[in-house]
Amino acid sequence: MCLISMGDVQGTPLAEMSVADLEQPVLTTLRSTFITARAAARHMTRQGSGVILMFGGYGDPVPNVGGLQVAFGAVEALRRGLARELGRRGIRVLTLQTGGIPETLPEDMAPRQAITDSIVAKTMLGRAATLADVGHVAAFAASDYARSMTATALNITCGAVVS
Predict the structure, then answer these.
(1) Cα–Cα distance for residue pair 122/128, rounded to 1 Å
(2) What are residue 39's phi and psi, to 5 degrees?
(3) What distances in angstroms separate CA 24 from CA 21, 70, 73, 101, 106, one per listed residue?
(4) Range of the domain at 48
(5) For 97, which of 22, 51, 145, 153 could close a Cys bridge (C-beta 3.0–4.6 Å)?
(6) How would you classify the pairing of strands 3-5 and 8-10?
(7) pLDDT per position in the chain (163 positions), as tens?
(8) Is the dihedral of CA 70, 74, 77, 83 positive or negative?
(9) Collapsing DSSP states into helix, strand and coil, what is residue 1?
(10) How many CA atoms lie within 13 A of 104 on its CB side?
(11) Helix 67-86 crosses helix 19-47 at what angle (to 10 degrees)?
(12) Which of 93, 97, 161 is nearest to 133 (CA)?
């Protein structure tokens, strides 16, 4: 199976993938995350505080997901660099690591159930996180209750990734 979504080719082993197919999700993901974080950081620097939340996370390697996993690794490196540079300015940088949210998959997506089953099978809790779960963790991460947290990923994978 070869799944192509927004320029992201999945289902092809990395060793058989073209350079362009590897680069596309890396460039798209890293560029959009950087531009957004940079704009937020400039505003937050003026006010002397803020929280930048990123999505991604880098757990155990998953085969045949192409450049997407490479992109997540790049976003994690960006998060660590930004956290190091922005911490003294009162800005925290965190990643919300989900392991996949099945309810975000299009209803008419042919392999939707197979992808959902794959996400759930990796978890210790026998379920995947929901958008509501992510929202609750994001609200916590952005609040003063998490004021001591920066430069880390918040694991919302239902145990799919052991930190």
Answers:
(1) 9
(2) -60, -45
(3) 6, 11, 14, 22, 21
(4) 3-155
(5) 153
(6) antiparallel
(7) 444 455 688 888 999 999 999 999 999 999 999 999 999 999 999 999 999 999 986 677 888 888 988 999 999 999 999 999 999 999 999 999 998 999 999 899 888 999 899 999 999 999 999 999 999 999 999 999 999 999 999 999 999 999 7
(8) negative
(9) coil
(10) 11
(11) 20
(12) 97
The pTM for the full model equals: 0.90
CATH code assigned at 30: 3.40.50.720
For 123: left if phi > 0, alpha if psi spans -120 to 50, otherwise beta; the answer is beta
Question: In the Cβ-directed half-sphere of 2, how many Cα atoms lie within 13 Å?
Answer: 8
Residues belonging to the chain: 163
DSSP structure string for 116-156:
HHHHHHT-SSSS---HHHHHHHHHHHHSGGGTT--SEEEE-
* Residue 82 maps to a domain: yes
Q: Tell whether 57 is covered by a domain.
A: yes
Q: Are 162 and 122 in contact (CB under 8 A)?
A: no
Name 50's bridge partners. 91
Total number of domains constituting the chain: 1
Lookup result for tokens 């959902």? 116
